[in-house]
Structures are given as C-alpha cells and as structure tokens.
Amino acid sequence: MQIKRVDHICIAVRNLDEARRTWEPLLGKDKPDDVYIDEPEKIRVARYWIGEVGFELMESLTPDGEVARFIEKNGEGVMLVSLNVDNTRKAVKELQEKGYPFIPDSRGGFVRPFRKGEFAFLHPKKLNGVLMELIDDDGLESSGSLLPD
Q1: Predicted model pTM
Q2: How does DSSP assign 44-108, residue by residue?
Q3: Which residue, 39, 74, 78, 114, is most buried by CB atoms nearer than 10 A?
Q4: 102: which strand partners?
C-alpha cells in the first residue's frame, strides 16, 4: 500500500450552516470549495481546500446517521482522518492480512464507491479511537452533485 498524502479531515457538526459561519472566517473562505450530499452515508458536507488537504464539515441528514451517532457519543469535533492511497481495494486486502478490521457497509462489503474512486473505513478500535478512511480518489473535484450555496 502506498499512502500518497493526507486526503481530508472531517469535523462532525450538528448544524452545517452555523458551522460554516464559524469556520469560514478562520479558513479565509467566503464559501466552501465543494458542497454535496452523500445519501448512502446520510451526510451533507461542505469541503474547503487547505493546500492539498480537504477540510470537511459534515452534518447528518438523519438522527440515525453515523455523524449524528458520533456527536451523540463524543460531541462535535474531529471524526475522521482520510489517507489517499494508490488503490483502495489492494490497501484493504493488505491491511486485512495484517489484522486491521474494516467497517462493512449495508451490503456487507468494505469498499464503497465515491465519484471517480473508492473508499473504505478502518475500525477505530484498532487505531486508538481514530476513524481512518482510505480513499483512492484523486479527483475530489466538484461533480454534478453540488448544492446551491
């Protein structure tokens, strides 16, 4: 497995619009670089580019979503660190062989599609409580799923 870079960091928030008003002045931005809804993950996201690293604010779309459950258990804050890898499927296989557990999706698989690539979640119980994501998507550019500001 080749790690290319830190891809993005996700902050779980209760209210995306309020969080944007707090974070955008700090980040020197007047709007996100990308806003999208990920229905399978039940989240609404505002992404900002800080150099080559994405900084994401994530709000749950439903009370039973992972972001909502994270906030209920831990409060708002850093939820996920994502590493950009050369190939998600190969990275998952390699890490499974080394005993790293992955979180299955609703179908029981570990690798999920996203835009032009794929991603997988490593279970935080193995990584000092940190939810890690592996993603091989070099193209986190805007897609047709953008929302109006």
Answers
A1: 0.83
A2: EEEEEEETTEEEEEEEESSTTSHHHHHHHHH-SEEEEEEEEES-HHHHHHHHHHTT--B---TTS
A3: 114
A4: 122
